[in-house]
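#onboarding

Welcome to the new folks! Below is a worked example of what a typical request in this channel looks like: someone posts a single protein sequence, and someone else replies with the predicted structure as tokens. Don't worry about understanding the tokens yet, we'll cover that in week two.

Example request:
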Amino acid sequence: MTKSTQDPDSQMDKQNSGVAAVDRALLILDAFDIDSPVLSLAEISRRTKLYKSTILRLLSSLERHGYVVRNEDGQFSLGITPLKLSRIYQNSFKLKDVLYPILERITKETGETSSFYILDNDKRVVLFRIEPARSVKVSISEGDTFPVNVGASGKILRAFSQTEVDENLQQVQNQFWASSFGERDPETSSLSVPVFSNGRQLQGALTISGPSERLTQEKIAENTSLLLECSIQVSKYLGGEISPLIELIR
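Example response:
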């Protein structure tokens, strides 16, 4: 009796096809961002450069697993599953136990919003965040994503994750802090410092942000030492190199 065998090339084609489908599905999810939480089919197609028929097929699977939801008006938004994964990601870190008290201290002493950002390809993600009790504050939530090419935290994440940097990021590397005035939001200022683990491996960016009328250049200068102190505390806990940071606050 002759055994039937599957053509290896055919099997490989199926595997490659499956990988391509996953890549396209992730491309669709990446089309959503903080400024565009709800997208039409046409807009998803424009952003991903995929055919609408392909998008609809993949959206059906993503919707079935809770990654996206179809709204009553026919547009799409992210579902509950990404939030669940975000919570799992947060809870997988001992980082949370040491960072929240640090962020609370920063917010208490500065009266401004404190955050911890991580790098995700070409985006920066708010991993942890503490808001002040003040009525005027920067309203951003944990899990929000922003472009990495703007903002103080974006400068830190780029400066300490790239092997080759321009003159501006070289200055950030030398001084171990970065500031931003109205880059992402014209009415918001921010200050950010790096947090290291395992030597000089970048773990994330410790940041304060607030209204520009309140978080002025003078206030940023006043709070730089505080953020560097907090970075030393977290980096030491994570086994990061802290000697350059200590030198800056002596």
